[in-house]
Amino acid sequence: MSMTARQRVIFCDFDGTITVNDNIVAIIRHFNPPGWEAIAEQVLAQQISIRDGVGRMFRLLPASLKEQVVDYGISNVRIREGFAELLAYAKEAGIDFYVTSGGIDFFVYPVLERFGIPTNHIFCNGSDFSGERIEITWPHPCDEHCNNDCGMCKTTIMRRFPSDRYERIIIGDSVTDFEGAKLADVVYSRSHLTEKCRELGLAHTEFETFHDIIDDMKRERN
């Protein structure tokens, strides 16, 4: 058996990880359609799936608001410190970098475009403004190994990178990253994901900025 090193691959969340804020909630809160809060509460309490909740919240908005929604989505984004540096480090160290996001194409793609991340390295949800209401589309559903109705299933994507060939590194902050953390070799966490990892005794390294992650990765390799 050859002892070739496994290829390192990063799966990085977008909302609340690459960005400081959660853009889906911010967009809905900004346009404030009646009834959205109750839906958001049900998602957080895990009474309804993320796919169902996000779909319902956007359906409260008329598609005629497209321009305002897109503009707000893009201009609202605040990037966490050190992101460009992490991308540069990954490139230099030969680490594949993928964005796995429950966010939506109309703000995820334009924001990441300026960092030169190719769209085939970005997995997120889609959007359709052609009807009366905004419809979110779900091009990356759960495979047969996941029944969480994730909408954008992170573990389905991770399973395309088998653990015998890849060292899987996940960076995230929320409940949606939790199943992925169970599969990963290395977990960089903040916020809800840190709490979840503690609860289950999963090894994790906390981070505040991407500089923390770069420092840790450099230490690991020395």
TrEMBL record:
Stored SUPFAM superfamilies: HAD-like
Pathway: Amino-acid biosynthesis; L-methionine biosynthesis via salvage pathway; L-methionine from S-methyl-5-thio-alpha-D-ribose 1-phosphate: step 4/6
Gene Ontology MF terms in the entry: 2-hydroxy-3-keto-5-methylthiopentenyl-1-phosphate phosphatase activity
Reaction catalyzed: 2-hydroxy-5-methylsulfanyl-3-oxopent-1-enyl phosphate + H2O = 1,2-dihydroxy-5-(methylsulfanyl)pent-1-en-3-one + phosphate
Keywords: Amino-acid biosynthesis, Hydrolase, Methionine biosynthesis
One Pfam family it belongs to: HAD
Enzyme Commission number(s) from the entry: 3.1.3.87
HAMAP family reported for this sequence: Salvage_MtnX (MF_01680)
Known role: Dephosphorylates 2-hydroxy-3-keto-5-methylthiopentenyl-1-phosphate (HK-MTPenyl-1-P) yielding 1,2-dihydroxy-3-keto-5-methylthiopentene (DHK-MTPene).
UniProt cross-references to PANTHER family, sorted A to Z: PHOSPHOSERINE PHOSPHATASE, POLYOL PHOSPHATE PHOSPHATASE PYP1
Family designation: Belongs to the HAD-like hydrolase superfamily. MtnX family. Belongs to the HAD-like hydrolase superfamily. SerB family.
Name of the featured protein: 2-hydroxy-3-keto-5-methylthiopentenyl-1-phosphate phosphatase
Taxonomic source organism: Paenibacillus thailandensis
Lineage of producing organism: Bacteria, Bacillati, Bacillota, Bacilli, Bacillales
Record gene name: mtnX
